[in-house]
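Could you help me review a protein record that somebody else here produced? What it holds is a sequence and that sequence's fold in token form. I need someone to confirm that the token line plausibly describes how this chain folds. Take the sequence as given and treat only the tokens as open to question. This is what I was given:
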Amino acid sequence: MKTRKGFVSNSSSSNFIIALAHKPTSVVDTQAMLFDKDQTIFPDPYKDCGYPVVDVAERVFQDLRKAEPLDIADILECLESGYISEIYNTLETELPYLCGGNVTQAERQACYDKRNIRERELVTAYWNRFLMLPKVKDCLFFVLEYCDGGGFMSCAMEHGDLFRLLPHIQISLH
């Protein structure tokens, strides 16, 4: 069963597991990782506006300064904490939730237990496929969270293509 740690609201939020060759040492370093050299504005996917890439890079740099590289247990927990369509769709196909009046509590619990075991298997396989990408060899992995309840720039960071230049996984926590 999924549990959400921390603040829960009606706003959407997403965790991003990002792969970095090194932890950035400055805003300029962060900006170089996130954006093309000539890019000056990070577009808002919902509004006809954008944000200076230096401001977005500053926010990401500050978030990464506080972050520690993830170990495998943290990564798997993060992947299990939210919604990844490939994993969820497989679970729904293989082990749909039991509901209705004819199902006992023991049967429901057995179904949840099977789903949890299968989810761990699917998450592990998903992560192992990600690790096969050439760009993640010898990388450090960090998790950052952005939500649409944190102001306009945060919404763009969650729903825009902020990490398009980096190997990453987005986990929806809606």
